[in-house]
């Protein structure tokens, strides 16, 4: 237990390091650029504190419960080599964990064009089908880039015929569905499935399930936009909650915490039920493993409750108010560099990002470090926020950004190592987590209201762009890595040849070859 407490303190300290920069940026903006009510700032700081503690509990819980569960299911399912079992299990689990995803619940409550139950049900079906396809892809050794090219061509073709108000929401749903609940499970599932194989590409195929599961919701919502016609498309006005005293701040959080606790109990309960059925059938985990997993589920529950209360009560109103006040001022163009700054630092506050980066470093044997991933994702998020602010301020249609962006990302798949393709497309889903849906989306909505834009068409789509830019940035990072590796290999060959054939000293740029005395 002492070891767990020590790890928990380390996780909380790591979360504090991640959340502090974005908290400081918001405070500086509220002092020098656009003043915010004192009560709103106090709610924001309280939310930041809950977010830090929640992230600490969640990441520890994911390591203890969600990751072993996902890996175990992947191994046991593929060991049986029964195609019917594989298809049935992945469809059921994909549907359940999607409904359990808190990010999807947040998007459902903010989307006026589609009722929440319709959106959540449609997205969950899309995730279930594409999770099944992703597992089959890994088993049958189909190259990820080939499937992604085929499916994204279909996606953009369907988008042409879909209702225009559904297009931004559809691409947004692809990002939010792969959030803090689904990502650890999907990553571990992929690792479990790939571990059964012993071929040279098994490491690369550990990634790709998140990427495939990001396509499913987009496809499902766009198809819904062809056949489903909602009664109304009215956008409800948002009522800001302000607190005059610290007691009122505590009251707001106290009212919301039981709601999120009930919601997350149902979420975690559904996953625990799936795990219980799995354990009864396979008997994979021993008693001491089950105790650790039970504690992990409890930590995951506590972490998500605190995290969601913090971002929804503390971050949501600040994001919307900041966006509106800056966009309605004469200095609205400052949103471009400001968006880049916020984007660069906010990605580190996404809980699932830490899970992905850790697994990438482990599977690559330290070749792709956590630092490399953090920097790549930060650059991608900064580019995404800059593009989003440009799109909202100047009224640029979202397809003018998504089509060339995805075209370039898919083109890069032919030139980078396969493992970087899987990591990049997984990163797109991971980067667009709860911080995006509860801070950046409200920030975009407030900006859109400030410039007098169309909320349904202009504000929604930010998650889609956030999910797209890592595909390009991480693959470009992979391309640079590949070129440097080839250069190093050539220099090593020259060094070996020079040592064996010459008694002179050569300088090959970065490598100096010295004479070896015999």
Provide a descriptive summary of the structure in words:
By secondary structure, the chain is mainly α. Helix content is 78%, strand content 1%. It has 19 helices and two strands. The chain has a two-stranded antiparallel ribbon. Helix 5 (116-139) packs across helix 9, helix 12 (335-346) packs antiparallel against helix 14 and helix 16 (418-431) runs antiparallel to helix 19. The longest helix has 42 residues, at 38-79.
Primary descriptors:
single chain, 518 residues, mainly alpha, two-stranded antiparallel ribbon, 19 helices, 2 strands
Q: Give the rounded overall mean pLDDT.
A: 83
Strand content: under 5%
Sum up the overall morphology in one term.
globular
- Unreliable spans: 510-518
Strand-pairing-aware structural class? mainly alpha
Q: Note the total helix count.
A: 19
Q: Please state the CA-atom Rg, rounded to the nearest Å.
A: 24 Å
Largest sheet: 2 strands, antiparallel
Q: H/E element string?
A: HHHHHHHHHHHHHHHHHHHEE
How many distinct beta strands? 2
Helix content: over 70%
Terminal residue distance: 59 Å
Strand order within the widest sheet? 1-2
């Amino acid at each position: 237990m002492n070891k767990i407490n020590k790890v928990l303190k380390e996780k909380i300290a790591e979360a504090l390091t991640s959340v502090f920069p974005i908290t400081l940026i918001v405070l500086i903006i509220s002092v020098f650029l656009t003043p915010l009510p004192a009560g709103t700032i106090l709610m924001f700081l309280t939310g930041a504190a809950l977010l830090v503690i929640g992230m600490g509990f969640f990441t520890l819980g994911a390591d203890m419960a969600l990751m072993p569960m996902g890996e175990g299911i992947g191994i046991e399912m593929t060991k049986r080599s029964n195609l019917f079992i594989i298809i049935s299990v992945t469809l059921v689990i994909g549907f359940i964990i999607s409904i359990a995803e808190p990010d999807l619940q947040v998007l459902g409550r903010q989307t006026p064009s589609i009722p929440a139950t319709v959106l959540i049900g449609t997205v969950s079906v899309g995730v279930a089908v594409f999770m099944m396809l992703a597992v089959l892809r890994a088993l049958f050794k189909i190259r990820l880039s080939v499937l992604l090219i085929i499916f994204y061509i279909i996606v953009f073709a369907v988008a042409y015929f879909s209702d225009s108000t559904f297009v931004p929401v559809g691409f947004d749903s692809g990002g939010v569905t792969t959030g803090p609940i689904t990502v650890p499970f999907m990553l571990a599932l992929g690792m479990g499935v790939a571990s059964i194989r012993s071929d040279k590409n098994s490491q690369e195929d550990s990634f790709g399930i998140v990427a495939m599961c990001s396509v499913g919701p987009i496809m499902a919502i766009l198809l819904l936009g062809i056949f489903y016609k909602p009664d109304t498309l009215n956008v409800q006005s948002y009522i800001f909650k302000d607190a005059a005293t610290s007691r009122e701040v505590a009251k707001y959080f106290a009212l919301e915490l039981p709601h999120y606790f009930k919601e997350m109990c149902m979420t975690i309960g559904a996953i625990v039920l799936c795990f219980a059925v799995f354990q009864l059938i396979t008997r994979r985990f021993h008693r001491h493993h089950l105790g650790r997993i039970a504690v992990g589920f409890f930590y995951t529950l506590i972490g998500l409750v605190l995290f969601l209360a913090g971002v929804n009560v503390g971050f949501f109103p600040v994001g919307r108010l900041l966006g509106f006040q800056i966009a309605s001022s004469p200095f609205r163009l400052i949103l471009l560099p400001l968006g880049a700054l916020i984007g660069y630092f906010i990605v580190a506050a996404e809980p699932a990002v830490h899970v992905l980066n850790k697994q990438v470093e482990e599977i690559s044997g330290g070749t792709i470090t956590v630092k490399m991933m953090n920097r790549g994702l930060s650059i991608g998020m900064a580019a995404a926020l800059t593009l989003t602010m440009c799109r909202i301020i100047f009224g640029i249609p979202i397809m003018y950004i998504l089509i060339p962006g995805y075209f370039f990302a898919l083109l890069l798949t032919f030139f980078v190592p396969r493992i970087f393709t899987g990591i990049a497309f997984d990163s797109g889903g991971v980067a667009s987590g709860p911080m995006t849906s509860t801070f950046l989306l409200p920030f975009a909505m407030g900006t859109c209201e400030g410039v007098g834009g169309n909320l349904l068409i202009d504000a929604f789509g930010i998650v889609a762009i956030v999910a797209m830019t890592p595909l390009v940035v991480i693959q470009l990072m992979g391309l640079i890595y590949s070129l440097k590796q080839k250069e190093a290999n050539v220099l090593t060959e020259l060094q070996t040849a020079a040592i064996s054939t010459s008694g002179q000293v050569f300088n090959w740029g970065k490598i100096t070859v010295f004479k070896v005395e015999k």
